[in-house]
Amino acid sequence: MKKLEEYVRSIPDFPEPGIIFRDITSVLQDADGLTLAIDTMQGLIKDLDFDVVVGPESRGFIFGTPIAYINKKPFVLIRKKGKLPCETVAKEYALEYGTATIEIHKDSIKPGQKVLIVDDLIATGGTTQAMIELIESLGGKVVGVVVLMELAGLEGRKKIHNVPLFSAITYPGK
């Protein structure tokens, strides 16, 4: 069986010169690659005690839902502003060029619940830190973050201190 890294397609100079884009569609389009990705992420958090899985739009949905299913836990969506139908709480955060806002249903996390965040990637850590703050604003406690890929050169891990980060693949560069 191939290594997980072998399923990830690397595209040089996208979206701009000097950047290597790590494309996960090649993982998703291969049954063995998808199975290996989910199994690897599950293996990283198998000893973690959590009550609920949270995943951000859209690739966090892809990896978070099977993790929730395997562990018989509920799955909670974090979406871009204006996409959730019930009462929400929001968090605005900085991007490289501007800001973004994410939201979660106000009643989706109960005070004291232990939360696992599942996503495809951590780069600079801005989105992950915003998710942690959003969950904490509802009284939840983030006990871990698991991602398929970490771009270690962008140092996102430093932004989420005090929360364990598990990554299936770590790339040293950007």
Question: In one word, what is the shape?
Answer: globular
Mean pLDDT: 95
Round the Cα radius of gyration to an integer and report it. 16 Å
Q: What is the count of DSSP helices, taking H or I runs of 4+ residues? A: 4
CATH topology: Rossmann fold
Give me the count of strands. 9
Largest β sheet strand count, sense and barrel closure: 7 strands, mixed
Percentage of residues assigned to helices? 10-25%
SSE sequence, one letter per element: EEHHEHEEEEHEE
Class based on secondary structure composition and strand pairing: alpha/beta
The proportion of residues in beta strands is 35-45%
Domain count, please report it: 1
CATH class: Alpha Beta
Task: Report the CATH architecture.
Answer: 3-Layer(aba) Sandwich
Q: Can you describe this structure?
A:
It contains four helices and nine strands, in the order ββααβαββββαββ. A hairpin with a 7-residue loop joins strand 1 (9-12) and strand 2. Helix 2 (31-45) packs across helix 3 (59-70). It is an alpha/beta fold. It has helices spanning 25-28, 31-45, 59-70, 126-137, and strands spanning 9-12, 20-23, 52-56, 75-80, 88-95, 98-105, 114-122, 141-151, 165-171.
Topology, element by element:
Blueprint: E1 9-12, E2 20-23, H1 25-28, H2 31-45, E3 52-56, H3 59-70, E4 75-80, E5 88-95, E6 98-105, E7 114-122, H4 126-137, E8 141-151, E9 165-171
Parallel strand pairs: 3-4, 3-7, 7-8, 8-9
Antiparallel strand pairs: 1-2, 4-6, 5-6
